[in-house]
Design brief:
With 113 residues, this protein is of the alpha+beta class. It has three helices and five strands; from the N terminus they run αβββαβαβ. Strands 1-2-3-5-4 form a five-stranded antiparallel beta sheet, covered by helices on one side. The radius of gyration is 14 Å and the shape is globular. Bound molecules: guanosine-5'-monophosphate and zinc ion (ZN). The site of guanosine-5'-monophosphate (5GP) has 13 residues, from β2.
């Protein structure tokens, strides 16, 4: 399948990987928007949040728990961090393989743009 994040998961395209296990890969965003900007992806191709099924509940839970663990590992647990899933055009999704953004290391504005 011609999917950028499937290729990163398979090691066919380089990325700065900070965590990987049987189900997930976490790597640095190529165009970081904060001092820490990681993407946490499932190894299995899922195009958007709209494509999740109840069988994916544990997978999505582990994506969030991995984000929290990585935030803590980088020293951001107390000051805080943001996790974001963009879904489809209005949210600005550009890669159609779900990914959880983890942003930390600066005060993030709200509401988002
Ligand atoms: P989206 O806009 O779909 O929510 O987020 C896609 C993210 O993937 C963007 O933040 C973008 O910078 C990042 N990205 C796009 N291409 C690559 C790539 O080849 N390598 C890495 N590490 N990140 C990428
Ligand atoms: Zn994919």
């Amino acid at each position: 399948m011609d999917c950028l994040f499937c290729k990163i998961s398979a090691g066919q395209i380089p990325a700065t990987i900070v965590h990987q296990d049987d189900d997930l890969v976490a790597f640095k965003d190529i165009n970081g928007q904060a001092p820490l900007h990681l993407l946490i992806i499932p190894r299995r191709h899922i195009a958007t949040l709209n494509d999740l099924s109840p069988a994916d509940d544990a997978l999505v839970g582990s994506m969030f728990r991995t984000a929290a663990a990585l935030a803590a590992q980088h020293g951001h647990a107390d000051r805080g961090y943001r996790t974001v899933f963009n879904c489809n055009r209005d949210a600005g999704q550009t890669v159609f393989h779900i990914h959880l953004h983890l942003l930390a290391g600066r005060a993030l504005t709200w509401p988002p743009g």
